[in-house]
Design brief:
Layout: E1 5-12, H1 16-21, E2 27-28, H2 30-43, H3 48-63, E3 68-75, H4 81-98, E4 103-108, H5 111-114, H6 117-121, E5 126-131, H7 139-151, H8 154-176, H9 182-196, H10 199-211, H11 216-245, H12 250-281, H13 287-314, H14 320-351, E6 358-361, E7 366-374, E8 379-383, E9 389-393, E10 397-400, E11 403-406
Parallel strand pairs: 1-3, 1-4, 4-5, 6-11
Antiparallel strand pairs: 2-3, 6-7, 7-8, 8-9, 10-11
Helix pairs in contact: 2-3, 11-12, 12-13, 13-14
């Protein structure tokens, strides 16, 4: 029977080691981890990552008595999210190539690191998980200290302080210019609407496709989009100027100017984008990407019409109850479109042979191989290198080629 090789793994997801102590991950070995944790505590005595590293060393000392083991700390990125996870996956795979571990003990200092469990368990068998919690006299005090420490981190500081600060400053500038609070509410509301319906990514991908279409035929479709956009902006500016000259407030004039852009030009542009993407994706058999494009387009049309009706209410050409009804109908239509897209992906998955294909996330993290499709549950069953079976929702699939790529 092969001897067990245990990897005691600690993860510093937001890279406090690099930011505060100047230590670059991965940190391999007992002495290296003790030195790195000590340097981190000297820079910030309240940092919990250092305590997690010492806990990892403690567990390593216990395991090494009876089994072969190694203790490693890997680091992410202060921006968290995609950037951090990509670095963590790269370092972890490099470590596993150097130290052929049979299983892993995961040491963490909180919930943020626990989000990485799927990425870890898809690459190595997870024996146990140890969460390090700093001892405090009272639970309330512990929560208070944890919140304060998190708010000092750049990511959370931007989220909880930076964004509200920008909104407040915008309110102040708008009020000083005599426009009041309505323009800022409208801008923030529009952004949240685009974010909530998933239109933001659609717009980014659309601009990317317009700049570099993959086929000449698609370029023929995309050229009118630019013309329509210029025409709609020209009409919008004209409507804004006319409204302002007729004594309407700035916000009302702006509403008059935006309305022609939303209807009918925005709807026409979205329809042309669908046609262009279909021309690009259909010959390639990129059905999943085509379905995602269709869903984003439907959501884009719904948001465009809903925003048009909201602006019509602002200028007094629609009743507020009409806007509420439209909003309710929009939610229902979005749910129907989402369910329809999900069912389409299930049908496509049944026709395309996905079994045996490797499946990875959109950040390049390897999950395993697909061994089957559960049509009733709408999932693909992926088997990890250690034999664990993981259900993957089919709606998460973004493209299928030599590998299946899923959204994280």
């Amino acid at each position: 029977m092969a001897k067990e090789n245990i990897l005691v793994l600690c993860i510093d997801r937001d890279d406090d080691l690099g930011k505060k102590a100047g230590v670059t991950g991965p940190v391999i070995g007992r002495q290296a981890n003790i030195q790195a944790a000590t340097n981190l505590l000297l820079k910030d005595p309240e940092d919990t990552d250092a305590n997690a590293m010492f806990q990892a060393v403690k567990i390593y000392d216990e395991v090494i008595k009876s089994k072969k083991a190694e203790v490693v700390t890997i680091t992410g990125d202060s921006r968290l999210g995609y950037h951090a996870d990509k670095k963590i996956v790269t370092q972890l795979e490099s470590i596993l190539q150097q130290f052929h571990a049979t299983s892993c003990i995961f040491v963490t200092d909180g919930a943020d690191d626990e989000e990485l469990l799927p990425l870890i368990s898809s690459r190595i068998k997870l024996d146990s998980k140890k969460t390090v919690v700093m001892k405090q006299a009272k639970e309330l005090e512990k929560t208070y200290v944890t919140l304060l420490s998190k708010l000092k981190e750049p990511y959370y500081a931007k989220l909880f302080f930076g964004i509200p600060a920008l909104i407040l400053i915008s309110f102040l500038i708008s009020d000083m210019l005599g426009y009041g609070w309505r323009p800022i509410v409208g801008i923030v509301g529009m952004y949240l609407l685009l974010k909530g319906f998933g239109i933001e990514d659609f717009l980014i991908n659309t601009v990317r496709n317009l700049l570099s279409p993959s086929t000449r035929t698609a370029l023929v479709v995309y050229v009118p989009i630019i013309a329509l956009a210029l025409i709609s902006i020209s009409i919008g500016v004209s409507e804004f100027v006319n409204a302002a000259s007729n004594g309407y407030s700035f916000f009302e004039s702006l509403s008059f100017g935006i309305r022609p852009i939303l209807w009918p030009f925005a709807v026409f542009i979205i329809i042309l984008i669908i046609i262009g993407r279909a021309i690009e994706l259909y010959p390639k058999g990129s059905w999943f990407e085509l379905i995602d494009t269709g869903l984003s387009s439907v959501n884009g049309i719904i948001v465009s019409l809903l925003a048009y009706l909201a602006l019509s209410w602002v200028v007094g050409e629609a009743w507020f109850y009409e806007f509420l009804i439209a909003m309710f109908v929009s939610i229902i239509l979005t749910l129907i479109a989402t369910e329809f897209a999900r069912s389409l992906k299930i049908r496509v998955a049944a026709k395309i042979r996905l079994e045996g294909k490797e499946i990875i996330t959109d950040i390049g993290a390897y999950i395993g191989k697909i061994i089957g499709i559960d049509k009733r549950a709408g999932t693909a069953i992926a088997q990890t290198p250690i034999g664990t079976k993981i259900p993957i929702k089919l709606e998460r699939i973004s493209s299928v080629g030599e590998r299946v790529i899923v959204k994280q």
